[in-house]
Write a structure and sequence with these properties.
The chain has 219 residues and is an alpha+beta fold. 20% of the residues lie in helices and 40% in strands. The chain has 5 helices and 9 strands; from the N terminus they run H-E-E-E-H-E-E-H-E-E-H-H-E-E. Strands 1, 2, 3, 4, 5, 6 and 7 form a 7-stranded mixed β-sheet that branches. The longest helix is centred in the C-terminal third of the chain and has 14 residues.
Length: 219
């Protein structure tokens, strides 16, 4: 079932002249506008990998991925739905966060009809203390996300466009450790970024330095 965030982005990309939930063969496109398919994905890209590859054979496909630059965490009463309290999340999303999921669909980016659009947003995350949530949240359930504001978009029309997300001053060739340090990201995310860039053909492995694999941007 589409979330409030998903529906809001569908409506944004459909505009006044687009269509939402359009059946195209064995798949249903989120949005069809001006002959272009927009697929909104707020989670794991594995779920849409085959769908994107199939639709891209006959259509231009833009995968839309929202990243929350700012997030307001709102707790509601599980019985009434009334807002109980709210706080700002200390976490601030960045475009590189897409690699947490893009690692599951890197080869699809090589198709000439596939583009990625990262949408930087402000979101509300709705939670309720109903005892049904994960132990990590101490039983608090995640109800969903709501779009508060769309701040900016970053468009990537091919593998090499993603090189713009590499941190300034990164040496060539580079290691995952250097990418993590200079990009101010956790090593696991840097590893996913390096893997995805290599699989999509934006970089290539050029050797090793000790135990570290060396990567260099392709020409």
């Amino acid at each position: 079932m589409p979330t409030e965030l998903h529906l809001a982005l569908q409506q944004h990309y459909a505009g006044a002249d687009g269509e939402i939930e359009v059946d195209l063969g064995r798949y249903r496109a989120d949005v069809l506008r001006g002959g272009v398919i927009y697929e909104v994905q707020t989670g794991n890209f594995t779920a849409i990998r085959d769908k994107v590859k199939s639709l891209a054979r006959k259509h231009s496909v833009v995968v839309v991925y929202p990243v929350p630059r700012d997030k307001l965490i709102v707790h509601i009463d599980p019985q009434t739905g009334d807002e109980l309290r709210a706080r700002k999340s200390p976490k601030h999303g960045r475009p590189v966060d897409i690699f947490d999921h893009l690692v599951n669909m890197p080869t699809a980016i090589r198709a000439k009809n596939v583009a990625i659009e990262i949408v930087i947003t402000i979101q509300r995350e709705i939670r309720q203390d109903d005892g049904q949530g994960s132990w990590r949240r101490k039983g608090i359930s995640l109800v969903g996300h709501e779009l508060v504001e769309l701040l900016e978009t970053h468009r990537f029309d091919g593998p090499r466009d993603f090189l713009s997300l590499l941190p300034e001053g990164l040496p060539s060739p580079f290691t995952v450790g250097e990418l993590a340090q200079m990009g101010r990201m956790r090593r696991y995310l840097a590893g996913k970024m390096a893997y995805a860039l290599c699989k999509m053909g934006a970089t290539k492995k050029v050797g090793k330095r000790g135990n570290w694999i060396l990567y260099r941007a392709t020409r």
